[in-house]
Each structure stands twice: as C-alpha cells, then as structure tokens.
Write a structure and sequence with these properties.
This protein is α/β, with parallel strands linked by helices. The protein has a domain of about 325 residues: TIM Barrel. Helices cover about 40% and strands about 10% of the residues. The longest helix has 25 residues. The relative contact order is 0.15. Bound molecules: manganese (II) ion (MN).
Length: about 450
C-alpha cells in the first residue's frame, strides 16, 4: 500500500548507504542474513522434526531463520551503566527517570562499556546496532557542554563501531543537566534555556549524520524530552506551542536521510510529570506526520492497558517509517527488561503480518540495575528475536483466509495450536547457525564474564 502523503524517501527500497559497513573478524556480514548464517551445519533431529511439523501447516523454517537473521536490533548503551554517561557530573539523573538496584560491575568508562557490549552481542544472534545518548561523548577530560558537542567527541565510538561491524543510533540527552532541573527543556518558558536545548538538538543531529556517513547506515536520532508538570497545569497549550517552535528550529537544517533519520518520542508521564507532559502521543503523531519525521512508539509510554501493537498498522498509514522502543511497563515503571511477553509477541506479529520490517527500526529501551546488566541486554534482545521468529513461523496466509471466510473458530484454534508448536528447536537452530550459544548455555558465559571481569570493578 502506498502512503497517502508524498515523502522525501521511498520505503520500497532500502535506504542508500554512504559506504558499506566493514565487519572485522566476524562471520556476521551481509544485510539480508546471507553470510551471517552457517547453513552447512548438520541439522539436529529436533530441528528436522520441527521442520516437518511446520511444513504440515505450510511454514518453511529455513526461510523464517533467514529473514530473522536480517533484522537488526538497536541495543541501548544505557543499560550498561545505569544511564551514567561520561560527562563526569554526579547528581540526579532527573527527567522523571529512576534507576533501581545496585548490582555490582557497572561499566565506568567507555572502554568498559564497549567490552560489556561486545560480550552481549557475542551472545545475540545476528548483526545489530548500538544506540548512544549524547552523554556518552568522550571529551578527553575537558568539560564540553551539551550545546557544544561535536562529532569528534564520538570519534572513539565511530572507530569502535566500524571495527565491530555495528550500526549506531543516537539520542540527544535532555535530562541530567542543571538546565533541565526544573523539568522543562525545549518547552521551557525561559528563552535562554530553550535556546540551549535547541542548540543541543541541532548538535546531536549533526553527530547522528556523522555516524551514518562514517558507518554507511542511517543513524536514527531520536528526540525525547521530559517536559511536564507534577500537578495540574493551568496552561496546557502554551508549552506545546513553544515545543513545536523549538522542534522546528532543532530540525531546521536539512540532512541527508541516508545518514540521519529524525525521530520524536512521546511519553504519558514520568516521575514528577504525572499530570501533564507537553510531548504527548497526539502531539508527536501530528508533529511526525506534518514534518515527515519518524514517530517513536515506546511500549512503556502509554496507559497500562494501551498497547503499541495496535498502533503500528494505524500510524504506518500516515508515516513512512517508525521507530519502536521495545520495553516493558510494570505499574509506574516503563522500563523493565524485555521478555517474551504477549505484547512483544503481538508487536512482532504486526511487523511480520504487515510486511513492515523494512519500515520499522527496532530498538530496546529499558534499564535494570538489579540484575547482571550484560545479561539484561541479552535477555531483552533475544526475547525480541524469539518473538519475531514466532511471527515468522505463522502460517499467515492460512490465518488470513480463515478470517476472510468468517471462520473465527478456526482462526482461534490455529492461533492456539501455534503456541505449542516446536519453535524452540527452530530458535536453537538459529542460534547454532549464527555461531552463538543456545538458550540453555549463554548464561554460563555471562557467569564466567562476571567472575573474571565485572567482579574486578570497584566503584
Ligand atoms: Mn524510549
């Protein structure tokens, strides 16, 4: 289906790459799954039996694995250090965010964070991306404020990403800063404060474009701001008007979409902004449609029974591209570690059934300091991949036919049948041909890493 609105780039073909990505010392090459998988490995009896079972309902397991291998997940760096960053400032993170837990072994330096990240991606099948926040700049000990950061402050990340064969996504950091302490940034009533944050947003887009240019893969630069009120506002309108104006200034400079893609992310509420958030869903949906931006849907940023899975096919009628932040809301918290929950499965089904994998950028967004942080990345990323695999193993056309025929009994029965199909053997095969440990053995590597590396870190 064509988008009703003409757009600056076409989703019918992949975004052009400035340069091809170099994947050093890794079998994980290629954008389509070819070259990532070692399909010459003999199949286990379990996989052969699973293939037979799925073939009976018209599903090709090898094809599902091949498609899954081509899906990149953008792993958020901030799970590795509790959103600490490297600015050297101590104090509250602010922004309505809170980290709970004090598990030992937090990454304290860029080198430690990268080493931890490398360990995580070595346990996740496929080839993926890292999602950085602006506070992860490396300024060589000099104090560089947020409105003055430049691509050179991320040279270490660019070199490392290139050598590791990783794509990079980026985020301006509109929190954990003295000028964000009263809860407003781009919608701040003070023009000077607003100006500071506008300059930060502009600087970050250029950094995003530098990542995209250097790595040959567009960087999604996502804007999320905390702006809102704890208690009932007297004026909901004016902050939103200020926010539109400020965002327009942030995005004023045209950038090549082959290098940088802008996204905007809404939130329902945060700690200290329970009654009003200027950047609500309706606000950013309208903004993204009229300004041709990506909309970011964070699974934890809506009412507890409101689901992102139902929004995907609605918003993609009006938008070319979407950024997903897969997270897990639990009561007041929007950021629990992702697991193979019903909602993550529904999201994955929507992406596959709607043929949206080429138009949706998948990222993770959670932080949990109460468990091993490297394991948290692995659990979250593998859960999303398992959900995608389950979606790819659906007999989609058969389900649609039952629905067209009005046979809702058959539709429900088939959906239930799918729950007990031997998908685990297919997942094991994907891990094996990707050269990563199976579901029952990856944690052993984390335990070893914890005793040899993480436990040596004194805070
Ligand atoms: Mn998010």
């Amino acid at each position: 289906m064509r988008s009703p609105i003409p757009t600056p780039w076409s989703y019918t073909k992949p975004l052009p790459c400035a340069r091809s990505v170099r994947a050093l010392g890794s079998q994980r090459q290629g954008h389509d799954g070819s070259g990532i998988l070692d399909s010459t490995l003999p199949a286990s009896t379990g996989y052969a039996q699973a293939q037979e079972r799925y073939a009976e309902i018209g599903v090709d397991c090898d094809a599902a694995i091949g498609r899954l291998a081509s899906v990149q997940i953008s792993l958020h760096c901030w799970q590795g250090d509790d959103i600490g960053g490297f600015e050297g400032q101590s104090g509250d993170i602010g922004g309505g965010l809170a980290i709970t837990g004090n598990y030992p072994g937090r990454a304290r330096t860029p080198g430690e964070l990268r080493t931890d990240f490398e360990k995580a991606v070595s346990l996740i099948p496929g080839r993926h991306r890292i999602n950085l926040h602006a506070i992860y700049a490396e300024s060589g000990g000099l104090r560089v404020d947020r409105d003055e950061i430049r691509p050179e402050h991320f040279a270490g990340w660019i070199d490392w990403a290139r050598e590791s064969g990783l794509g990079v996504d980026f985020n301006p950091t509109f929190f954990a800063h003295p000028l964000a302490e009263d809860g407003f940034t781009l919608a701040h009533p003070d023009e000077g404060v607003r100006r500071f944050w506008i300059e930060h947003g502009r600087a970050c887009r250029k950094i995003g474009a530098a990542f995209g240019q250097a790595l040959g893969s567009p960087c999604v630069t996502n804007v999320w701001i905390p702006d809102g009120y704890k208690d009932l506002p007297a004026d909901r309108k004016i902050p939103r008007e200020r926010l539109v104006e400020a965002l327009d200034q942030v995005f004023a400079e045209p950038l090549d979409p082959a290098c940088n893609l802008d996204a905007v992310e809404c939130k329902l509420f945060g700690l200290g902004s329970e009654s009003y958030v200027a950047g609500s869903h309706e606000f950013y949906l309208g903004y993204a449609i009229t300004r041709r931006k990506l909309l970011c849907l964070d699974a934890g940023h809506f009412h507890p029974t409101e689901v992102v899975s139902d929004k995907i096919s609605a918003v993609l009628l009006w938008l070319d591209r979407l950024l997903l932040h897969i997270s897990r809301g639990v009561r007041w918290d929007s950021d629990h570690v992702v697991i193979l929950s019903d909602e993550v499965r529904e999201i994955a089904k929507e992406l596959v059934r709607g043929d949206y994998l080429g138009r949706v950028h998948i990222g993770l967004d959670f932080f949990d300091a109460s468990i091993n942080r490297v394991a948290a990345w692995v659990i979250g990323a593998r859960a999303v991949q398992k959900a995608l695999l389950l979606a790819l193993l659906e007999p989609a056309e058969r389900l649609r036919q039952l629905e067209r025929d009005g046979d809702f009994t058959g539709r429900l029965a088939l959906l239930e049948l799918l729950r007990t199909m031997p998908s685990g053997a297919v997942w094991d095969r994907f891990c094996e041909t990707s050269g990563v440990p199976s579901e029952s053995s990856w944690l052993d590597e984390i335990r070893t890493y914890e005793s040899e590396v993480l436990s040596q870190r004194q805070t």
